Fold this sequence. Notes:
The structure is a single chain. The chain is of the alpha/beta class. It has 11 helices and 12 strands. It is elongated and about 70 Å long.
Amino acid sequence: MKRPSYVTDKALKTFIKNALEEDIQDGDHSTLSTIPQDLEQSAKLLVKQDCILAGVELAEFIFNTFDKNLKVEVFLKDGEAAKVGDIALIVTGSARSILSTERLILNCMQRMSGIATLTHDWDSRLVGTKTKLLDTRKTTPNFRICEKWAVAIGGGTNHRYGLYDMIMLKDNHIDYNGSITSAVKMAKDYVKKTKKKLKIEVETRNLKEVQEAIKAKVDRIMLDNMNVETMKQAVEMINGSCESEASGGITRDMLKEIASTGVTFISAGALTHSAENIDLSLKAVK
């Protein structure tokens, strides 16, 4: 699949540099002390749990960033269903390079595959509806690029990447500012003054706030922690004047019922903060 716009070579190189520095520091001494410098070997990425595979392209990038002479043969691509016993890829080259990148590769792919698998499962519940599944900013610090990429690989839609690419006025913004009307006006003035192309979303907690957000003419209204009946009323009030987003305490079992209200999006932090890692291993080819 095509990389999301935020997954740039520059961003990946920064992530990999920091991750390797965290792990290796002044040297992988276990490897340096036992493996000859000129020894070449192969290793296979073994799938040990059924999943939607994610992180294959990242693994290639990590291998080639660490050692441009490593050769990677890919058998399963990002987003493909993998079964126990499948081989996702085989890497060949310096044994030292393979060993020094092994844990970073596995940490990324196990986590990303877990997120992609969960996202795929949840998104399948929305088939036949017009509602899209979104992630959130409830991600692991310094690992957001991988977690959001995994959501996209699993079939979900990325919400804003960070604080810089959308204005979202949440409950604390509203409470600190004084009102939705005032906060939205100031946000619109800010966008005009700075000439930034930023959509404005407002979090609402009840139908009164929904009505105020409608009058303020925002791009999207978040319906936070509302029950399905209230959500349905809110969507009817919005009546297509802007996008709507259901959020707060979303579970897999609620997805179809929430989608039946006609809401544009459903956002769920669980996609990234509650996904379980998939069991993968990198084994020497004998």
